[in-house]
Amino acid sequence: MLARVRVLVAEDEQRLADAIARGLRREGMAVDVAPDGSDALIKARVVRYDVVVLDRDLPGIHGDEVCRAVRGERPETGILMLTAAGALEDLVEGLSLGADDYLPKPFRFAELVARIHALARRAAPSRPPVLAHADIVLDPARRHVERGGHTLELARKEFAVLEALMSAEGATVSAEELLERVWDEQIDPFTNVVRMTIMTLRRKLGDPAVVETVIGVGYRLA
């Protein structure tokens, strides 16, 4: 399973949007929801999503315009377009607007998840399949981490935070960045969840301490 996939679900049918969001969160993704085109554009311009699941027939700003804007401003973001129409001409038109993939309604949730994972892998920046720092080795594909040859049992968020820090290669990662990548808009921006997750991660990593706090800035690996 991919770690830390950030998804925007732009869908005006609230029950469907909520069901998609709940399901994707159970898959370990961070999910935001936009009920119309205007909100979708605002969110897509603020947050760097890995994938946008975009209903074509959005109210306000039409999904076609959202697709064009996201493709122009966030070329690295994968776009999966949803539509009630399944005709070939609709498929061709949707892809010509800049969508990477197309899924007609109704669809099977497992297929939606598979397509999101495929787009997220395509959008992800190239990096070594296994991350290493000092005596810590983290394998994102296997969701496996060890230190000094000993396997560590990390919770999902602890694993995602450690992956973010290791991917930064010694650079400082702010709490805001961790909230954006590991959690989603459902989280209170004033929460201490990042600090608490760092505390449990430090405890599980053991000595010598490797996660440093850069006061007023964020966290990094020593």
Radius of gyration: 19 Å
Question: Which strand order does the major sheet show?
Answer: 2-1-3-4-5
**CATH architect. name of the largest domain:** 3-Layer(aba) Sandwich
Unreliably modeled segments: none
Structural class by secondary-structure content: alpha/beta
Assign an overall shape. Answer: elongated
According to DSSP, the number of beta strands is: 11
Strand percentage: 15-25%
Overview of the structural elements:
With 222 residues, the chain is an alpha/beta fold. It folds into 2 domains: 6-123, Rossmann fold (3-Layer(aba) Sandwich); 131-221, Orthogonal Bundle (Arc Repressor Mutant, subunit A). It contains 8 helices and 11 strands. It has helices spanning 14-26, 37-46, 63-73, 88-96, 109-123, 156-167, 175-182, 193-205; strands at 6-10, 30-34, 51-55, 78-83, 101-104, 131-133, 136-139, 144-147, 150-151, 211-214, 218-221. α2 (37-46) packs parallel to α3 and α6 (156-167) crosses α8. The longest helix is centred in the middle third of the chain and has 15 residues, at 109-123. The mean pLDDT is 86.
